[in-house]
Amino acid sequence: MIQPTQSLPSRAGTSSSVLARLRVLMVATGFVVVQWLIVVGLLGVRITVPTSPGAVEREPLLLGPVFFASLIAGFSAWGLLTLLERLFSRGLRIWTGISITVFVLTLPFMPGFSLGERLFLLVEHGGMFAIIVLGMRRTRARP
Fold first, then answer.
1. Among 46, 59, 67, 125, which is most buried by a count of CB atoms within 10 Å?
2. What is the pTM of this model?
């Protein structure tokens, strides 16, 4: 008679973790979209950004790029966190440090931004950063 070998570890928490992290990304993306709709759509504030990095020409910041950029940033953060959690026992701590660095480096420090644009982008970046970092930290796998 064949004896069963040691069973594989259960991955029961995986689907709930994925759903929780997906909710974090939905909330973060929803935050930036709602902020854009209020500031640009309802209040009529004109937010412009350079047409390319370092360019003098500016174009209006449209909802589509805001939506897709937030999704790309969110899924990139999630993917990096997943990779670091698999490679390092302190993957979450490393990821948090990288997230803080990316947040600071993506703030609108370049010349050409008005004070209103800087404030808008600071709230967009800061809100998304806070939601993703705090949300992902809450969804980490418990040993």
1. 125
2. 0.81
Under 8 Å CB-to-CB from 116, ≥6 apart: which residues?
Answer: 45, 47
Instruction: State which amino acid sits at residue 38.
Output: I
* Pairwise CA distance, residues 86 & 37, whole Å: 38
Give me the helices (H) in the chain, please.
Answer: 12-36, 63-87, 91-105, 115-138
Domain boundaries, the chain: 17-50+59-138
Confidence of residue 141 (pLDDT cuts 50, 70, 90): low
Q: Are 119 and 43 in contact (CB under 8 A)?
A: no
Rg of the Cα atoms in the chain: 19
